[in-house]
Amino acid sequence: MNVLVVNAGSSSLKLRVLNDEDEVVGTADLAPPRDAADKAAIDAALSSFRSSPDAAGHRVVHGGTVFSTPVVIDDAVEDQLRSLTDLAPLHQPKSLAALDAVRAVLPAIPAVACFDTAFHATIEPAASTYALPSAWRDRWALRRYGFHGLSHAYAARRAAEVLGVSPESGLRVVTCHLGAGASLAAVQGGRSVDTTMGFTPLEGLVMATRSGSVDPGLLLWLESHAGISADELGEALEKRSGLAGLAGTPDMREILRRASAGDDDARLAREVYLHRLRASIAAMAAAMDGLDALVFTGGVGENSAEIRTRTMAGLGFLGIRGDIDCDDAGPGDREVGEVGAPVHVLVISAREDIEIARQVRRVLGT
Q1: Within this chain, do residues 52 and 199 fall inside the same structural domain, yes or no?
Q2: CA distance linking residue 171 with residue 173, whole number of Å
C-alpha cells in the first residue's frame, strides 16, 4: 500500500507518498492552506509522483477527548473534527482545509485522521488533570492533552529499535521534540505517561516564538493592571515570546552564534531555554521512576550538538553523560552520549510521515 501523508503546517503543506518499505516515492511542499487549500496545486503534485497513493493519512493536531486512536474519515467524523476547532484554532482549520482538498482530488481512496494528541491519551489522571473547579473541567473538558504525539511515538519506537530492545519491554524514554515548537514526553513500555504541553501547545518548554509555561497570575495582572486584552496576550504568547521575546530572533542557530560572540541577550535566551529543558527532562524521568534513554529529535534536537551537550552537562545526576567530543552533528539515527553511561542518549530523525503511514496501514488492516 502506498500511503499519501498530508501534513498541513503553518509554513507549508507537505505531501509525501510512502511505499510498503516506508521509502518516500513522492514528495511536494506546497503553500500552506488558508481558508482553502489549492486543489489544482495538489492535483499537479500528485500527478508528478511516480507512484499513486492507495490511501491518505492526515495529520490532525487535536482529537480532543473524542479521538484517542486514528480513525477512517467519513462525513460524520469530519463534522466532529470541525467541532474541535475551538481547541486548536490556529491548527485545526489548516488540517481541515487540506483534508477537503485532498478528498476532492482523490475521492476514491480511504482517508485516515492521525492525531497529535492521541499518543498522550494513555496519560493517567494524576498527570493530565488540572487542579481547577470540577464544574469547569467537566463542562469544557479542561485537561492536559499534549501534542507532538506522532513525533514522540515514532522517536520512542525507533530508539528502542536502535538499542535492540522491544518498545514494550518497559524501556523508559524521554523524547525531546525540539523544533520551532518543543515538547517532551515520558514514554514507558511504548506508552506516554507524561508530557510537557497541556490544554494548548503553549504550556511547557521555551519555544521559538511561544512562551512556554508562564504564571497565570502574571497574565491576569497584565490584563487587569496594564489593560492588555486577551487577544493581545494570546498573540504575544504565541508569536512574540520564547526565544524571539528573549533575543529578538526565533532562530536557535543565530542565538548560539551571538551567544558565543558575547551577546548578553542571546546568552540569556540560551540559558533560559536550557534551564527549562533540563528541569523538564528531570520531571519526565521522575514520572517513570528513572530513565534508560534520552532522545533528541526535531530541527534543534537533531542539528544542534551544542544544545544537546549543554543539556547533558546539567543532567549527570540522572546518569546522563556526554560532551562535545562524543557528540557530533552527523546524519542518521545514532547514539551521542558517553559509551557505557547508565543512560543512552540518541539522536533520532523526526519522521512523523512514517508514524502516520504505519497508523493508516493498521487502521485499514493492511
Answers
A1: no
A2: 6
Is 116 one of the annotated active-site residues of the chain?
Answer: yes
Query: What is the β-pairing status of strands 293-297 and 172-178?
Result: parallel
Average pLDDT over residues 239-251: 98
Based on the domain organization, do 265 and 201 belong to the same domain?
yes
Query: Would you say the pTM of this structure is higher than 0.70?
Result: yes
Q: Which three cell numbers stand for residue 54?
A: 492507495
Q: CATH number for the domain including 289?
A: 3.30.420.40
For residue 219, what is its C-alpha cell? Answer: 497574565
The four Cα atoms 266, 271, 274, 275 give a dihedral, to 10 degrees, of -150
Which residue range is the domain that position 38 belongs to?
3-115
Check if the beta carbon of residue 89 is closer than 8 Å to that of residue 129. Answer: no
For residue 35, what pLDDT is reported? 76
Question: Could you say which of 22, 35, 38, 116 is catalytic?
Answer: 116
Strands 111-115 and 71-72: antiparallel
Residue of 87, 311, 79, 69 whose CA lies nearest to 184: 311
Amino acid identity for residue 181 in this structure: G
Q: Which three cell numbers stand for residue 165?
A: 530492545
User: DSSP for 335-347?
Assistant: E-S-TT-SSEEEE
Residue 273 and residue 301: Cα distance in Å, rounded?
Answer: 13
DSSP secondary structure, 70-111, as one string? -EE--HHHHHHHHHTGGGSTTTHHHHHHHHHHHHHH-TTS-E
At residue 123, φ and ψ (nearest 5 deg) are -65, 135
Of the candidates 15, 22, 20, 21, the residue with the CA atom closest to the CA atom of residue 49: 15
